[in-house]
Amino acid sequence: MIAPKVLLAASGDARLPANRLCWPTQSAMEEDLKAAITDLGVEVERLHPVDEEAGHGFLDSQKRCLEVFRDIDKDAPLIVAESVWQYSHHILAGLIGHRGPILTVANWSGQWPGLVGMLNLNGCLIKAGVTFSTLWGEDFSDEAFRSKLKEWLETGTITHDLSQCKTYTPGTSDSEAAGKELAETFRSNRAIMGVFDEGCMGMYNAIIPDELLFPLGVFKERLSQSALLFAMSEVTDVEADEVFTWLVDRGFQFHFGSDDATELTRQQVIEQCRMYVAACRLGDDFGCDTIGIQYQLGLKDMCAASDLVEGLLNNSERPPVSRPDGSVILEGEPFPHFNEVDECAGLDALLINRVHSKLGQPVETTLHDLRWGDYDQSGTTDEYVWVLEISGAAPPAHHIGGIAGTHGYRQPAMYFPKGGSSCAGVAKPGEIVWSRIFVADGGLKMDIGRGHVVELPEEETKRRLESTTKEWPIMHGVLNGVSRDQMMARHAANHIQVVYASDAASAKECLLARASMAAELGIDVTICGEV
Fold this sequence. Notes:
By secondary structure, this protein is of the alpha/beta class. The protein has two domains: 5-155, Rossmann fold (3-Layer(aba) Sandwich), CATH 3.40.50.10940; 174-528, L-fucose Isomerase, Chain A, domain 3, CATH 3.20.14.10. Helices cover 35% and strands 19% of the residues. The protein has 15 helices and 18 strands. It has helices at 16-39, 62-69, 89-96, 114-128, 143-155, 174-189, 210-213, 225-233, 237-249, 266-285, 307-313, 343-359, 458-467, 484-490, 504-520; strands spanning 5-9, 43-46, 78-82, 102-107, 133-137, 165-167, 191-196, 218-223, 253-254, 290-293, 365-375, 384-388, 407-408, 430-440, 443-453, 475-479, 495-501, 524-528. The chain has a six-stranded antiparallel β-barrel with strand order 11-12-16-15-14-17. Helix 3 crosses helix 4, helix 8 packs across helix 10 (266-285) and helix 12 crosses helix 15. It is globular. The model has no long low-confidence stretch (mean pLDDT 97).
């Protein structure tokens, strides 16, 4: 064994209600993990006690992390256990200075998104250059889980199967030639990424250093959410009502109630309509090619959530917003939005927009959380089906029924005291290209692969929604040639970018064109799974 004792820590949310709600699940998960470790002959010491007054045992701030990590043995093996969404910067400061072997461990649950929290932490560690191993599982008494745990306890590392990964070598196909040409145009024309308050929910991995963007011809316009709030006040009642009426006339299904504290109300949606108009105008004023609004922090205590705005911005068919001269901003086109101000997704969305426009393919794109996965219990398919589920908004073009198949539910009151509508629906079946841009070894990387969306029976869809967050959009995603464990072992983020193609042949062309474009721009590209 690498040591007779391992240290255990847990990073949590920044919001007290979330930490209190999730603590019993986290506590039970830790007990199961401790049992697995002690059965292998190793003692476990928890680094930080439960705060009985707060009602949880998470590291809930960077300050708390530094207090805890200040006097620990920095050469001791350390496990970070997660059964919840967590803010990675809470613990990152301690892990960056740690010298001993590090293992991140997550449960496997849709309701309790430890795997989402762990994947974000993994992406942050990768960007920061911190060496670590990772492990996950439904049952910590399972032989396969304990075998991998034993491997880490004995060697300080875990080896996972990454045979799905192949370094991309530029070829000479027509698609790749188009991608190379697009890269040259992209670099010379240049682009602006509008960032409404950088950094969100501890996602250090979602911030691209400016010096990595400059060679691509991409520049950040750092905007403020307070500026967005002021711009909302400049939107007239008539303009906000016009956006709302546009949506209702096209069949958007708002689920209204009367209790503003717990239910969706028309006034909340009107406020979101103001934000939609304001975001379009601010982005246009600053010449932005894409914009990102921070999520859950800051504005959540000031106004309704940004989700409806995000979904509409990423759609080609959306309410028109006029400039002072009467011309329409990006008429008939998306105004690409990177949810949760994830700049890696924003850069990816720009590349997708250029490639899919050039090839005449659907341009609507969004990120999703790699939320959870399970085999289909309806018998419709024997493939492994992921629940791809972003926390509030996907473009209606992705949904079965389009705008008329899109639903607006109140965002959970625990996170959003001012409410606001989601932009939710069930993703339509079809071919997709999935990807992730991330930062590693001081440079930009891209993983890209093909997949498809399956249509599952209503009861199976309902099971998956109720196992996760039923107010949010869901995609039943299959990743071609990539198993669950291969994806978990490789993926450097909680987010995955998706875009549709009209058929399998077109999906391959789009993938090769984007891989070629990215490589020409200096991004290291890895093809994952079957092309």
